[in-house]
Amino acid sequence: MTADALRRQIAFFRAQLASWPLPDLIPRLARLLAGGEPVTVEQIAAAGGWTVEQVQVALARHPRVDYDPDGRIAGFGLTLHPTPHSFTFDGRTVYGFCASDALEFPVILNRPGVAESTCPTTGQPIRVEMTPTEVLSVDPPEAVVSTMRPTEAVADIRAYCDLGNFFASPDAATDWLARNPEGQISSVAEDFDITRQSIIEVGWTAQPAR
Asked: What is the pLDDT along the chain (210 residues), one digit of tens a residue?
């Protein structure tokens, strides 16, 4: 893990959270959605000790929240709507907006699991087995993660998430890096460590299961 990448990630997290009301909304929402069903504003409010109005205002500041046909929240960061990046744990599968999202779920949920995706260049499946503290295996071993790490808050964080992918190898990510010269390519283990340390830094870690 490079110190600069970790510094940039923490700076981005802190800037983004400072620009949002209810900074703990994302991890609390993730833990509710991990149960496998969309949730209501009332459920989120009860879980966080907030008012319904506070949650509604906070959600309005998050572009492109996922909703179900009944207007319940289906995802933001962790989503029940299928994306290219899945995370399976305890017999359930949820999805991330980006590759790094899928790597953060073991930490936020305090659950081991498996992230799966497909290299957008080669079409090769990628599988990552993790615990809340480490990466256990990566297949293929040379797989990497693409990320954009601005250090200032952005209006639409999902626009940056859309650029985060798993690639089968550094060579497979060459074209992505050419199109996104401000981006970074990291090994899966390195991106997991950066993401984990950032989550710890901003206080998003889950309490141990009882």
From this structure: 567 878 878 887 787 777 778 888 989 999 999 999 999 999 999 999 999 999 999 888 877 899 999 999 999 889 999 999 999 999 999 999 999 999 999 999 999 999 999 999 999 999 999 999 999 999 999 999 999 877 777 777 777 778 899 999 999 999 999 999 988 999 999 999 999 998 998 888 865 443
pTM of the model: 0.90
- What kind and span of H or E run contains 179? helix 174-179
Is there a contact between 143 and 168 (Cβ–Cβ < 8 Å)?
Answer: yes
Catalytic residues: 98, 101, 161
The answer as to CATH 3.30.450.410 being correct for domain 3-202 is yes
Q: Could you state, in order of their start, the residue ranges of all structural domains in the chain? A: 3-202
Exposure letters 57-74 (e unless 16+ CB within 10 A, then b): ebbeebeebbeeeeeebb
